[in-house]
Amino acid sequence: MLIGELAGRAGTSARTLRYYEAQGLLHAERDANGYRRYAEEELRVVREIRTRLDAGFPLADVRPFVACLRAGNDAGHVCPDAAAVLRRRLAEVDGLLTELGAVRNRLAEQLACGAGPC
Fold first, then answer.
1. Which parts of the sequence belong to the HTH merR-type domain (predicted)?
2. Cα distance between residue 7 and residue 42, in whole Å
3. Does this model's pTM top 0.70?
């Protein structure tokens, strides 16, 4: 499929696809006229990239998931390198939740004090 079709089916822009290709995440063949032609499996790769980016992963952390798909796996998270990224990101999120919980508690305490000092 051509870049416009892939972009439409993936819900992204051609510019984004060219960026993913420049980053080595997406593969395209070139027609004689220079047009990019993508295999059907590249749609799965783009969807995996978008899913991870939408979840807050930096692009560098997406690479193991793409590699896992390219290795023939049905899902991008089943390989050891991708699972390690998931564990690390989960720990980061847990840490942020702990910090936010502490901030919430301080705010609630201040509200409970009313107009007087605590």
1. 1-68
2. 11
3. yes
* Sign of the C-alpha dihedral computed for residues 75, 15, 61 and 97 taken in this order: negative
Supply 96's token pair: 């942020």
Give the position of tokens 């301080």. 106
Here the tokens at position 59 are: 């692009």
Q: Do residues 14 and 43 lie in contact, with contact meaning Cβ atoms separated by under 8 Å?
A: no
CA 78 to chain centre: 15
Q: pLDDT per residue over 60-102, tens digit each?
A: 999 999 999 999 999 999 999 999 999 999 999 999 999 999 9
CATH number at residue 55: 1.10.1660.10
Is residue 34 in some structural domain?
yes
Residue 72 lies in a domain: yes
Please tell me the distance from the alpha carbon of residue 54 to that of residue 85, in angstroms, as a whole number. 15
Kindly state the DSSP code that residue 4 receives in the 8-state scheme: H
Reduced to 3 states (helix: H, G, I; strand: E, B; else coil), residue 2 is strand
